[in-house]
Amino acid sequence: MTIRVLLADDHPTLRLGLRVLLERAPDIEVVAEAERGEEALAKILALQPDVAVLDCQLPGLSGPEVAREIRRRGLPTRILALSAYRYEHYIRGMLEAGAVGYLLKEEAPEAIVEAVRAAVQGGMYFSPGVADLVKAILEGKREIPQLTEREREVLRLMAEGLSNKEIGARLGFSKRTAAFHVGNILQKLGAASRTEAVVRARERGIIG
Prior knowledge:
- The chain is α/β, with parallel strands linked by helices.
- It has helices at residues 12-23, 37-47, 63-72, 88-96, 108-120, 131-138, 149-159, 164-171, 175-189, 194-203, and strands spanning 3-8, 28-34, 51-55, 78-83, 101-104, 125-126.
- The chain has two domains: 3-138, Rossmann fold (3-Layer(aba) Sandwich), CATH 3.40.50.2300; 149-203, Arc Repressor Mutant, subunit A, CATH 1.10.10.
- The chain contains ten helices and six strands, in the order βαβαβαβαβαβααααα.
- Helix 7 (149-159) crosses helix 10 (194-203) and helix 8 (164-171) crosses helix 9.
C-alpha cells in the first residue's frame, strides 16, 4: 500500500525538504503541496490523501481550521500538525481539531516518515520536545484557568507592561483593587511573578 500525503506549509524550502525525505520511503508518495489553508483544504477535498501534514499557522485558514473542516466533513484523511512552536495553545488547538500528531519543525526531518506511518496505522506521533505537554493535556492535567472578564482585562494590561497604578487608572479603580486582581491572576495561573503569569497566559491561549 502506498501512503498518499499532502504537505501544507508556506515555506517552499521546508516543503521541498520534507517532500524529498518522504519520497525516499518506498511506501510514501507526496500527491500535493499547498501554501495556504484554503488551497490545502481544496486539495484535500479533491484528492483525499491518507495523511495531511499541516502547518499550524497557514496563511488564510489556519491549520486547526483546516483540520476542523476535514473532521466536520467526515473525510478519512489523518492530520499531522507541523509547527515551529511548542506553545500549549497551539498543541491543544490541533488536538481538539482532530490531529493525531504534532511535529516540531526542528525535529520533523528525522521523525516525519515514522509519524506518517503511525498515522495511517491508527496511531499517534508527537515530537519528543512536546511529548510531556501532550500527555498532560490528554490526561486533563492542564485545564485552562477560569479568569473573570475583569481579570482578563487586567491581564492584557499586565502584558502591556502597565503597573498596578496604571492598570487601576485605565480601568477606573484603585491601585489596591488592581493589586487584588493581579494577585488572583497569579494564583490561578500558578505564577510567581507578573512576567511568568503573562508567559503562561500566552502559552495557554488566554491572551494573544
